[in-house]
């Protein structure tokens, strides 16, 4: 029986990447040259790893079309680390940060940011149970600017940055069009849809993503930051969280997560070989549409997220009761469909359809939905 892993992260990797990892575990042969050690044992100061991380950065630049005035950093600490790292580096004294809260992760980011300065919640969909992406009211932004008593002597708007989570993993909503007409840099937590679609990097000040959804295993967080933002950080920030310091040392200031970066490098090459982001986006639309169509036609299951805000990566759905939810998850596990239980905060079910998920996995889930519904509806 073939199994399919619908985990929200750490998520499944492409089979081709897994095979390459197996080959490199006994001894890593970088470009055919034996390193005398497993890929998990090589030094991050060695020539081979330095070349690998450089290639990974270039592949990422190629895929996303990253402009030359942006730095690419490979950091640690995951999204939670960036919840603090962003305000530590970017939130200037006497200014605020504006957050759009569309789910638990953006809410947590705002709470973490408030430890470092003033945070303003510009829009929230919590009252709607995060079943939609809140619309940004530009009148609210204007009013905040007028009411802000910060130092505008440098011509600043009083806002250091605006923040969104462009895909909320727990609640299954996705920002398909980034906010525009902003008077300060946009910071995007793109963790859950990173490299599943094209994104206009130049419209953002900073983009970050944990690798463990679409790009690799847990342990490495990719940060893409515009050059002019590097000088904002106070000197008192710890060096490993200081964007400018990490950029200066090309992400090699301290020992990086070598194995995680290696797997990420393999996955980036796999994405390029598949046809890049246009192909990843085509597959994402195809997979998610298949599942949403089935749920919308179901008499037992419902997908609650507003249609235009539905995530292509994390499809959340519910049955009429927690008992039926549990029975369906158990039913799927017996058929090799794993990790479909919803997040403990939200409940229900969640099918994560990241880049490595084949269409056959979605087809197997649809078959389970139909079979289960026939005996429970």
| Secondary structural class | alpha/beta
Spans of at least 5 consecutive residues whose pLDDT stays below 50 are 150-156
Residue share in helices? Answer: 25-40%
Number of helices: 10
Q: How much is the average pLDDT?
A: 92
Look up the CATH topology of the largest domain: Aspartate Aminotransferase, domain 2
Structural domain tally: 2
Order of helices and strands: EHEEHEHEHEHEEEEEEHHHEHEEH
Got a strand count?
Answer: 15
Major sheet description? 7 strands, mixed
Distance between the termini: 27 Å
CATH level-4 homologous superfamily of the largest domain? Type I PLP-dependent aspartate aminotransferase-like (Major domain)
CATH class of the largest domain: Alpha Beta
**How do the strands of the widest beta sheet line up side by side?**
4-12-11-10-7-5-6
Radius of gyration: 22 Å
**How much strand content do the residues show?**
15-25%
Task: Based on Cα principal axes, name the global outline.
Answer: globular
Instruction: Give the name of the CATH architecture of the largest domain.
Output: 3-Layer(aba) Sandwich
Give a quick set of tags describing it:
Aspartate Aminotransferase, domain 2; 10 helices; alpha/beta; Aspartate Aminotransferase, domain 1; 377 residues; 2 domains
